[in-house]
């Protein structure tokens, strides 16, 4: 029993220890696992510390840059300066025996130590010129080290220098000034070249009078590219003196001189001067003096007016020999060149163009190459006064002509006949080209297929007394006049003409007019139609409607004939006191004649017809007494007459009475029949003719 009891106690103790030890152990391993996961996710970072490493007794300078392990990055650009020294790169050892890196080199994983520091030390060399990794204390020393075997050697200038230099025959040097300056200090030129010399990227100047900046001797072959050459010493000579050698000026080189007796560039025959680019300026004499071979620009088929630029206080180019001119612009105060006849070679198809320019208050004469392009303006169905125009290549087209096309609105000039891109006055012309007028059809009227933008334009196009038909093509708002002597048949094609001129009738007639359809209407304080003295108006159909205060037709000593199914109505109101009869839908005055053979005439407020001259209703003795047509109706009287009224056909209606005034003549053998009629709830008195019993 005692042994069993002990076993039970041991088993209990084992279980208890398991419950304590296992969680503790699991927690320990979980923490280690979590730490490993964390380490794997977080990348180490490190710092590169740049050291100036000048060892000149001054305090050491440093700068830092942060890096992440596993990510490549460019080193910062060196910001340290060491007088009379050239920065060569970085090294992990201050004495240069470690690992080297160039400036701004892309690097990766310089250390794997988290938060580690990598020291890089600036490496310096003395000297101002470098060639093939060797540094020289002077530019002259580097040039002297070049062999005379004709093999090209590249020299890099590392700092400004004041020297006078000679390149011997047989030496071939590519000198990159690296934006530094070379200045001559003796009466010799800054550079004297007898070999092959290419100079780029910097400035060359001179401090002494009575000398030039560069002399290129007879054996010399000199090319300057993107170089500034300045001769600004009083009494100085040329920026470049090409003494029978070969000289090429290219890129964005800028040459200038203030000499009043020497050109900025002088080419002595049989020397060759090629000016491919850049700017040459003389503020005291000629830009270029030439008696050798001179080529300005390159023959490439497309002259560039902007480069090179040659400018002189007298001539831009003064040449005693013939030369070629392919690119650029030449400027001079006296003249651009001493003689354009000396220019014997130029771009095919191009001619010398002349202009003038004000520079610093001084007027310069200029020449450049240009080709005259022909611009053709195609009116595309219209007409245009300027059909062609000559434009210098590269210039804007300028103010555009305005074409005309009856019945159309001009939309602009386009590159295609029916599509394309619209141009404006700033369009640059570089070749022969045709532009097309585009139109929006705005035709209102037509005569024999010719369209017009207004009825008046159509009328004005008629130049004789031939009877002409004008067709209306759409509804329009217009006031128009038919001049005396014109015979016009209006075919309004059931369209409407409304008056948009409040002080004018829709139609003012002084000629002979026929109307058979359509609608003329006005809400203005004027009649729809004014028929003036001598005017003859024939209306056989259509509608003449006044919704304003005046008549549909105001006949002033002319002749008006109404027939067919014509319909006239007006809301005319009373005339001023002592002004004669109140207005009717037709108002006839001063010996005018109105003949109504048919149709309907309604006066909504006043008379159907107000007659103060001659009024004829119907056709006399035609064998037919119509009691329905013409139909005359007025809100007061159908006909108000004070003069001559001849009544042969039709019916007349009025609330106050059918007729006011006397009938001068009736159809023979007829009697006047008076009656009443209800119209729109109103009682009208009526009158018509019937044969005598």
Summarize the structure in words:
Helix content is 8%, strand content 47%. With 693 residues, it is mostly beta strands. Among the domains are: 1-40; 45-126, Immunoglobulin-like (Sandwich), CATH 2.60.40; 372-441, Listeria-Bacteroides repeat domain (Immunoglobulin-like), CATH 2.60.40.4270; 514-691. The strands form nine sheets. The chain has an 18-stranded mixed sheet that branches. An eleven-stranded mixed sheet has the order 41-40-42-45-48-51-54-57-60-63-66. The protein has a ten-stranded mixed sheet with strand order 43-46-49-52-55-58-61-64-68-67, with no helix packed on it.
Shape: elongated
Distance between the termini: 166 Å
Oligomer: single chain
Rg is: 53 Å
Kindly report the average pLDDT value: 92
Q: Helix amount, in percent?
A: under 10%
| Weakly predicted, low-confidence segments | 20-40
- Percent of sequence in beta strands: over 45%
Helix/strand class: mainly beta
Question: Sheet with the most strands?
Answer: 18 strands, mixed
The number of helical runs is 3
The number of E-state strands comes to 68
